[in-house]
Amino acid sequence: MAAPSGAASCEDFAEFQELLRVMRTIDDRIVHELNTTIPTASFVGKVDPGQTCKELYESLMNAHTNRERIIKNCISQTSAVVKTLKEEREKAPEDAVLLKQLRKEQTKLKLMQSELNVEEVVNDRSWKVLSHK
């Protein structure tokens, strides 16, 4: 089950969240994947469960790595924007539009940082399911 690994748009948080939602499909369907991966008695000779499990494991590892890379990349980009806006704000402390933009970017940064925590929970859940099957 391949997940998109394209470049994330870090400017639009809703788009960023949608990309992560789509990329987390493999984790959401891990039980189904395991149930369809492990052959029943009648298919034991036709399917190599060890190889199939290895492929599922590698897919899961790749998905986790790609999502973490995307999240950290967006955090880095948004942090740079926040830093720039803070510097501009110091030069123009009365600029209300600049302050509003800074607050918006700071909020987006906090939301992106919280996605790292969500990612940790999603990953842990998937590994627990995989290790118990």
Query: How many β-strand runs?
Result: 0
Ends apart, CA distance between termini: 18 Å
The radius of gyration over CA amounts to: 20 Å
- Helix fraction by DSSP (H/I, runs of at least 4): over 70%
H/E element sequence:
HHHHH
* Number of separate domains: 1
Percent in strands: under 5%
Global mean pLDDT: 87
- Any low-confidence stretches, pLDDT <50, length ≥5? 1-6
Shape: rod-shaped
Number of helices: 5
Instruction: Please outline the major beta sheet.
Output: none
Structural class call reads mainly alpha
Describe this structure in words.
- The chain is mostly helical and 133 residues long.
- It has one domain (13-39, 48-132).
- The protein has five helices and no strands.
- The chain has helices spanning 13-23, 25-28, 30-37, 49-91, 96-132.
- Helix 4 packs antiparallel against helix 5 (96-132).
- Residues 1-6 have low confidence and may be disordered.
Briefly characterize the structure:
Pfam families: MIX23 (PF09774). This protein has helices at residues 13-23, 25-28, 30-37, 49-91, 96-132.
Features:
single chain; 5 helices; 77% helix; Protein MIX23; 133 residues; MIX23
Set down the secondary structure blueprint:
Layout: H1 13-23, H2 25-28, H3 30-37, H4 49-91, H5 96-132
Helix pairs in contact: 4-5
